[in-house]
Design brief:
The chain is of the alpha/beta class. Helices cover 24% and strands 24% of the residues. The longest helix has 13 residues. The relative contact order is 0.10.
Length: 357
């Protein structure tokens, strides 16, 4: 099959099961004429948005084509029946549209994507074709007559993320061990992603760190990168039991608690969120302040942003048992109820031969 046509099966099925306005972000020979024909047959409005005047002129005669200067100008019309996202941006940039499209549309069809990274209530994906396609919705369940070779209405795929910045206490071995650790201790579908500035080859998906923030401050890039259901783990985390409850977390945000504080004090060694919290990501002015005070802990910044936004924050240690190696395990071994052991500070896991018992 032509790689530009791998979306057609799901696109037609989704379009036939919706009503109202159809929008195509981008345009092409394998989608625009098809959607235009369906729109005419069903008596539905159909609008194409594109940043390519050349491609827009090609289809101006069959539907309403609107040429944008850039995708930053896309208006996100409310009340759409279906939006087909296959525009001229890189896939990583296309993904930024999905949260708002889910909020303004009944159904969103995404070409070149195969994972429900945003925790949409309903999803059906075709991963057998390259590139893949996924249908997402918070409002409507899309049903196909044949479910063959489809990842159908799957539980939302959770992103499990870590951050590896070269030049610190950790090596790439920590990334490999953590990825394997997660695979061994969850039954939930997930993608393991490492944000890194390293050119090494990893046995997991990687995304680049772009801001050159110092040390642990690179963790803040998580909040501009992952908008859907996400679990974050520090690299010096060792998983010793099933972590499904953490990947099932449906609240807005959860952070850990500092074991050494007399009063409740949030920390960022393990985090989970299920909604866009990109407001935590620092402004340019805040980045300059970070560079002036790099030894300040990132957790203070994160907590302050959450409190300022009056964001509800759960205690991640109440979702499942997370313990400290130094406080709970070093002398008496790992508690039977523990699911996660955190090595905060010294020693690091490799300094004890990766043994925690």
């Amino acid at each position: 099959m032509d790689p530009y046509a791998t979306h057609q099966r799901l696109l037609v099925a989704a379009t036939m099961q919706t009503t109202g306005l159809i929008i195509e972000m981008g345009c092409g020979d394998y989608s625009t004429p098809l959607l235009a024909e369906i729109a005419v047959e069903q008596g539905r409005p159909f609008i194409v948005y594109t940043t390519s005047a050349e491609w827009g002129a090609k289809y101006q005669g069959i539907t309403d084509v609107r040429v944008l200067k850039s995708w930053a100008d896309y208006p996100y019309p409310p009340g759409c029946g279906l939006v087909f996202l296959d525009n001229e941006e890189y896939v990583r940039d296309r993904k930024r549209h999905v949260p708002r499209l889910l909020a303004t549309s009944d159904v969103v069809v995404c070409h070149d994507m195969g994972a429900n990274e945003w925790g949409a209530k309903h999803s059906v994906a075709d991963l057998t074709k390259t590139p893949p396609t996924i249908v997402l919705s918070n409002h409507k369940k899309i049903v196909l007559a044949s479910r063959g070779n489809l990842t159908y209405d799957n539980q939302p795929t959770v992103t499990v993320a870590c951050v590896y910045k070269i030049g610190g206490d950790f090596t790439s071995e920590y990334v490999h061990r953590l990825a394997e650790n997660v695979r061994e201790h969850t039954t939930r579908p997930h993608r393991f992603v490492c944000l890194t500035d390293s050119d090494e080859k990893f046995a997991c998906e990687t995304l680049p760190l772009t801001d050159n923030l110092p040390g642990w401050w690179s963790k803040l890039e998580l909040f501009k990168t992952f908008w859907g259901r996400t679990v974050y783990l520090d690299l010096d985390t060792v998983i010793v039991g099933n972590i499904d409850p953490l990947l099932d977390y449906e609240g807005p945000a959860a952070l850990g608690q500092d074991w050494y504080s007399d009063k409740p004090k949030l920390s960022t060694f393990v985090m989970a969120w299920n909604s866009p919290i990109n407001f935590i990501y620092p402004t340019e002015e805040e980045k300059q302040e970070i560079l002036r005070n790099p030894k300040k802990m990132d957790e203070f910044f994160v907590v302050e942003k959450l409190e300022r936004a009056k964001w509800h924050v759960d205690d991640v240690c109440k979702i499942l048992s997370i313990v400290s190696y130094k406080k709970h395990c070093r002398e008496h071994g790992v508690p039977d109820t523990a699911r996660i052991v955190c090595f905060h500070g010294k020693p690091r896991p490799h300094e004890v031969g990766w043994k925690i018992c």
